[in-house]
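Lay summary. Proteins are chains of building blocks that fold into shapes, and those shapes determine what they do. In this project we predict the shape from the chain. Here is one chain we studied, written as its sequence of building blocks.
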Amino acid sequence: MMESQWVIRSLLSRRSRQYLCSHCRHAKRHASTSTQVSTPDPLQDVVTESSFTAFPPSSEETPAFDPLALSRSRKKKLPASRYQFRPPKYDRGPLHPIQPPPPSDPSSREFTPGPFSSPRLEQTYNSIISPDILTMCYVHNPPGFRPPSKGPRLRTWDDSSPYHKGRPLRAPRGGDVLRLLRKPITFQNIPAIRRITVHSYVKGVVRSGSQFLHVAGMVLQSITNMRAVPHKTRTSVTEWGIIAGKTTPAVTVDLQGENMYHFLSKLVDVVMPRIKDWMGVRATTGDGSGNLTFGLEPELVSLFPEVEMNYDK
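And here is the predicted shape, written in a compact code that computers can read:
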């Protein structure tokens, strides 16, 4: 009985092997061989040795090293501040033998790290406006070109009177102020905004005290991110009730760098578009030498985001 069962099982196993397709046999053989193949090491191509590795000192050199004996045998002693340099606390002038390092030096007391980012308006100027100005102001001079000589800026007298002798030269026609000399624009002197001065004159200081001046100073500090500087009058004005050296009816803030660009972007992008029936800045404003001047009413100052969020309507 046992022999017949074994014969039947062997016959069934042989028939089942015959009915297996070639694809299944391939899959079984691949599955059996893939488990046996070892995966390659991803770090096998990395060089373990490095040229920066230093060999430890030998057992003979270690006891022979004596730093105290080395310092005693040195003829010239090292300065005391070789490794702990601190710049002088006070600048005693250009002729003093000990000079402080420049502010760009990290060891300077005036060193300030940064800038780590630039305002959007400054990026726009450097990437778009500055190349356009340089292109529009480009003047091509061929090789060998010599600019024509210009006459004197101040006029001379015609010597029609004996009193003309010894007189200073006359001012140019049309005004008594000499305009700034205009140099040809190159990549080194492209026009750019250098400084913005925000000035506020408070009339209520003379009549009601200094509380109005404190409010104006806080408003300027909030919109410019810098502390306002009060001014004292130099002369007395009887009609306005101003006494020289006592009253301070004005505050001023000078902006440069990042604070200047932030203030200008808020003024141009936020405040000016919200002014109703605003005709813009006059073309005749300024002195013709790059300085522009315009003012804002007290109601328009409340359009700044820092003032608007705290403004009591």
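What the prediction tells us: Confidence is low (pLDDT under 50) at residues 1-20.
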